[in-house]
Amino acid sequence: MLLGHDIAMSSLEAQVQTLVEAFRVVGTTRMADVPITNTLLDVAAIDFEVTTDDTGAKAGYGILLTPWFMNLIWLPLDGPTVLPIGQTTVRCLGESEFEFIGACEEQFGPYEMCSLFSPMFEFADQAAACDTAREILRLLRLVPEDMPDAHSGRRAFLFGRARPPV
Fold first, then answer.
1. 28 pLDDT above the threshold of 70
2. 78 contacts 58 by C-beta, under 8 angstroms
């Protein structure tokens, strides 16, 4: 069982490296002079890990940070099960549901994304953006017994479910 996880992780690491390289090219070409880019930021992949979807197929997810967006990224590892471009699906990550949209980058291929931030001007530097991404993933990956009340605190604020006033 662990061997299968190791193979999936190796495949995920290779995909993530290619994804980062593809978006670095986008950053130096198509996005180079676009005014929505935060020039203090660079492309980075944050804490991708292997998981399974509701059908049991392996996938990887984490956050792709660029100078123009921060997105949750879903990368299928068990074949081409990614959504067609523009189609959406809801995926459960931890106790939260997110709408992902099918996308394709010429130098990478198909993937799914869920926008978290765009543009990225509220981040003062790369460290702040990376810290925010890691905190989002930490909250998503909490096991139920470790979770704060889903309707209070930072988790509720982050995911837009703050408890209404009584």
1. yes
2. yes
Does the N-terminal peptide bond of residue 148 adopt cis geometry, omega within 30 degrees of 0?
no
CA-closest candidate to residue 60, choices 70, 49, 45: 49
How many other CB atoms are there within 10 angstroms of residue 94's CB atom? 17
Measure the CA–CA gap between 7 and 62, rounded to whole angstroms: 18
Distance, CA of 98 to CA of 79 (rounded, Å): 22
Q: How far apart are CA 54 and CA 97, in angstroms?
A: 12
Sheet hosting strand 44-52, strand order edge to edge:
44-52, 58-65, 70-76, 109-117, 96-105, 88-93
* Burial (Cβ within 10 Å: 0-12, 13-18, ≥19) of residue 44: middle
Q: Which of 117, 110, 10 is nearest to 72 (CA)?
A: 117
Work out the percent of the chain whose per-residue pLDDT is above 90: 64
